[in-house]
Amino acid sequence: MATKLFGVTVPPENVVDETLRRAIQVSAPPTPESLRAAVEAPLPAPEPVALARDPLAAWVEQTFGVELEGGRLIRRIHPITFAEGVRQLSAGGSLPEPLCSEKLRALLALGNHLQTEAGEPVFAFRLHQFLAAGGTVYTTLEPSAARSSRLQGEYYSPEGDGTKLLYPLAFCRECGQEYYLVDRSERDGESITPRLPFLDDENEDAQVTPGYVALQEEDLWSDSNEDELPDFWFEYRNGNRRLKRTYQLHLPVRLLIRTDGTVAEPGAEGAVEAWFQPQPFLLCLRCGAAYDRTERNDFRKLTRLSHTGRSTATTLVSSSAIVQLREDLQVPVEARKVLSFTDNRQDASLQAGHFNDFILVALVRAALHRALSEQHELDHANITQAVFRALALEPAAYAKAPAAFGPGKRQNEEALQRLLEYRLYEDLRRGWRVIHPSRRAAQQGGSSPL
Hints:
This protein is an alpha+beta fold.
């Protein structure tokens, strides 16, 4: 491999690999009886020499840390979880899992506390957790009480006779009503087939219309509901109110659909009643959230299961970790932090800006909530001062030249209050935020908090 990479001959003796040696000097228990005895024995003395002679410690090193390959010691290629290690210990020694879990935790903690001659822990904890992006839930076109749901993207449901189609779902950001992501085809008879789990999928086939399907359950919709459509969908001609031509195509269409996607005639058995709407999504049949035709981005109206941006996910995970660290009194104050590594400045700048903006919005809204809880009513004359008092920030947190008294203190406070006044009213307007929009944005038909 080195020869291919560098274009010159690299002999095997010039390739330097790591050499490992065992930290535990005894062998792992070879029989179930000896393994059971090692688990039931007391913990070794808190000394490196005693730990190096403990049979259970040898089993831990062999199970979690190293393995033999071609007669040489290497790091374990396929790591296992702590829970899997407990199950293996329980099965190998015919012991209850709670006992094995307690003994393993104590032994690992002891090994992490004791140090070798090089000043390193005998058992160094390396905790890895991979946070994967959320996927989509797929389900069949059946009543909610009987349908089959899966998290894997398959075309046919493995249950039944193999003809039931699995459709990806999206959910209204306002009320959570589910919608099937479908393609309505007029080719070889009308049919409703699953489409890719993208909210803004493009289709160049003139005979296929991408859209959304909602099951008719709990009196979801009826033709009489058209009177409740938003005013901007209508126009007045010769004194008569009528639906605009551009919105007529977006009225829900009643369909009877079988589980294989074929559209049935009225009165057919084995079909469910549903409503079809073409893309873009302009109307939620459950809560009535309506959108203008210019709002073609369905991402702000619908969301898939666990559909969160990377920046938002990183911000939430990081802030949650910091909050939990502050509540853990066993962690030193100087260690209650999160370190993040990135491979370029642009990503670091983007994440830092997203984090700061998220925290700023949360702080301002929390202060407004506290101020309202204390005074019960606020208006333009006192809202800024009330929010300022609710924040209760130290001067060093917001002032470049902090002052404890005098004109400097007054000028700093006035500057912060002017900024707070702008932030408060800016946050109340209908904005573009998807994850945590303002309350007014949600009431006016914008996106609601996840």
